[in-house]
Write a sequence for this structure.
């Protein structure tokens, strides 16, 4: 019997939150929490104080980090679901900062289209390297404050995994 | 009598290091140090541990933060030298991550051409808003590991400053 999707997401959320907080030093310092992980996507929550800058608003580098982590999470979970032992890295990205962040904020990323995810997994499995483009946004009480368009790459040392 | 350039740079370096470390929480956590500030540009040093990721290398968000801070520092100092009370923010940027960072690293930025800096200061003073494009790089023992091309904006609430 297959587990219910809600159970799968809850298990994945716990695994992801501890992976991010415990293994990526900046994510722990920023007090990252996985607020939501479901069939639509992911939402990571951050309090303002660890991200604060000289103007009392969210530092651009902290917002960049939050978005890079939200984008990384979805292909990381997809690789885990399919038992693919690949390293997942960010290759290049574009950032836009459109409004100051004056309170707690969230980094949100939607799952990509099924075809894009399938082709990412197929290339990772077959060629040892898959690429996935994702769009991420910072949401605050006042709306979207920053966006990220990023290309992530999964790299498998050999096709049997490592 | 004008102070010697070396003395000016030493004073600015102390002011900048404490501004970055004490007023930008992430910079303090990342243990930022101003290694060099001179007529060629700036070099910020970072140890690896606070920037580490799940692969034991430098997290992309930490490298992004380091580069955003190095780029921010030069126009910030230029505004200070000219007594311009403006907020300095990053508007948009492009990042490329080209090699893993396996040890302590530096974020380096060269002063822009005189004409670009002059036009940034003139627009900030005259129109209350100036823009400056800067290129920043992450240097490690193995060479350049990441690059940033960013547009910074100085915003003056009114032409008398605030």
């Amino acid at each position: 019997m297959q587990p219910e999707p809600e159970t799968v997401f809850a298990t994945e959320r716990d695994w992801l939150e501890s992976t991010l907080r415990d293994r990526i030093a900046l994510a722990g310092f920023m007090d990252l929490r996985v607020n939501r992980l479901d069939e639509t996507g992911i939402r990571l929550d951050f309090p303002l104080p660890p991200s604060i800058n000289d103007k009392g608003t969210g530092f651009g580098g902290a917002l960049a980090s939050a978005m890079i982590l939200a984008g990384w999470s979805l292909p990381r979970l997809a690789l885990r679901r399919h038992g693919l032992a690949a390293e997942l890295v960010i290759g290049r990205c574009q950032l836009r900062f459109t409004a100051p962040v004056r309170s707690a904020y969230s980094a949100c990323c939607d799952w990509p289209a099924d075809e894009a995810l399938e082709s990412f997994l197929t290339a990772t499995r077959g060629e040892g390297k898959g690429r996935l483009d994702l769009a991420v946004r910072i949401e605050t009480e006042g709306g979207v404050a920053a966006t990220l368009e990023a290309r992530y790459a999964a790299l498998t040392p050999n096709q049997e995994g490592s």
User: Anything to note?
Assistant: Chain B has four helices and six strands.
